[in-house]
Batch of 2 targets.
Target 1
Amino acid sequence: MPTLDQFGIILYTLRDHVKTRQDALATFDKIAAIGYRSVQVSGMSADLLSEQELRDALGERGLSIAATHESGDEILNETGKVIDRLQKLGVRYTAYPYPSGIDFSSDDSVDALIAGLDQAGKKLADAGLTLCYHNHHHEFQHSRGKAILRRIYDETDPKHLQAELDTFWVQRGGGSPAGWIRSVAGRLPVLHMKDYRLKPESLDADYAEIGNGNLDFVEIVAEAEKAGCQHFIVEQDTCPGDPFDSIAQSFDYIKTHLVS
C-alpha cells in the first residue's frame, strides 16, 4: 500500500479560496492542518504568487508540489514557457488539463491533438520533465475505430506522454477505472482520485468525497500502486458544502482504508 505522503489535493477543488494572496496562504494553512503533504497546482492564477513565492509558501507549511495543470494551449504552442514555469516550481509533472477547442467528432482534429501532445511531450522530456494527459468523459467517444483516449496513448511515445487518469471521468465514460489503470501500467505517475455518486432523484452522477461514492478505491489504489503511480491526487469538482470539510473527509478515509 502507498504511504500517506503520496496523497495530495488539487487546488482546483479549492479554486474559490485561492483568488487572493491572503486567501491562498490561509488555504495552504488549512490543507496542511488537515494532513495533506502535497498539492497539485491548478485553478489558481499564475500571477497570484511567483513560482518562488509559491514554492516558499508551500514549503513553509510542509507542503510540496506534486504536479501542475498548465494551459492546454500553452502546452501545445508555447511549450518553452511551460518548461520554464515547471523548472522554477521545481516540479517534474504537468498535465494537459482539458481538450478545449478540440472537435472530437473530427478524426482530423483528434489526429492533430495527438501529434501535438507527442511533440510537446518530447520537448518536456528533453528538459527532464513529464507531460501527462488528464481525461474527461469526452475521450471515450470513438475515433478511427477505438476510444479517443486509447488512441491518445497508443499513438504517442510513452517517453513523451504519460497518463493522469481521472477515476470519475473514466467511470462516467463507461470505462473501468481499475481496468484503465492496468492498461497504462508503467505510464501512470499521477492519478486523480474522484468518487462517483449517483443522484437519488435522477440517473445523473455527482462528485463525492472519497469513500462516499460507489468507486472501489481499495482496488483502484492497489492497481495504481502496481502500475507505478507516485502521486494520488484527491479532486472533487464541486462539494455539497464547505470544500475544506469535503477534503478532510476524503483524507480521513484515505488514512483509514488506503495506506499502510
Target 2
Amino acid sequence: MLQNFSELGLKDDYLQAVEMLGYTRPTQIQVETIPLMLSGRDVLAQSQTGTGKTAAFMLPILQRLGKANGIPRALVLAPTRELAKQVADATEGFARMSGVRALAVYGGQSYEVQIRALKRGVDVLVGTPGRLLDFIRQGRLDLSQVETLVLDEADEMLEMGFIEDVETILNELTEVKQIALFSATLPEQIHKLASKYLTDPAKISINPSRMTVVETEQRFYRVREETKLAALCCLLETDDVTSGLIFTRTKARAQELADDLLRKGFSADSLHGDLKQARREMVLNR
C-alpha cells in the first residue's frame, strides 16, 4: 500500500492542506479512490463511515476544479443535515490554499441565509436532496455547470426515501462528466441506480464483509427491559467513558434517556428530528 499522500498524484496545495489538518498516511479508500477520480473515472465505492471517504472524493474534486469561479461545479448529495455540514466544513479545510468556496444547504436553516451565500459565489455545493429540490423548483439554483457529482452514503438516502429526489436532481445535471457513489452497503436498488447513471465505473470495496471500521470493538450484553438504564449507567461508570453516542428507537425515548442520565449526574443531551436546527447544532458542538 502507498504510504503517503504525495504518491497519489495530488498537487502541493493539497498536500500542504492535508498536512496542516494532521493527516499523516492515506487510508485504503483514499489510496484506491484519489488516483481514479483524478483521472476522471466514475467510481462505485463500498466503504463504511469512518474510513476517510470525504477526503477520498473531495481532494481530487478540488484539484480538478482548479481556480475558484463562484459557480457550482461540484455537487455532493448527503442524506442528513449533519453530514452535509460535515462535508462542507471538511471541504473548506482541504481548499484553504485554493480559495474554492463550499456551502452546505439543508432544511431547518433559513432560506435567506443560504440564498445570500449562493449569491456570494459557491464552487462546491453540498446538500440534502429536499432542500436542493426546493431551490431548483424555485429557480434559485443553477446546476448547469456541475461537472462532478458525489452521492455520499447512498444506502442511507435509499432507506430515508430520497432516491426519487436524487434521480430528479440527477436529471437536472446536463453537463456532469463524473459521478462517484459511496455506500456502506450495495443493495439491488443502489446497483440499479449506479448502472443507470454511472459510466463504466471503477468498483472499490473496502472490507465489504466487515461492517465496522477496524478501530471499533463490539460487545453486547443481554439485559432485561427494566434493568437497561441501570446497566447503561454501570457501563458508563466502569468503562470510564469520556464521550458516547447512544441510539434509541424513538425520538421520545432519546429525550427520556437524556433526562434520566442527567438526573443520575451524567452530562447528557438528546439529538433528534423534532429539535430545531439551531438546537441540533448546539448539541453537536457540545
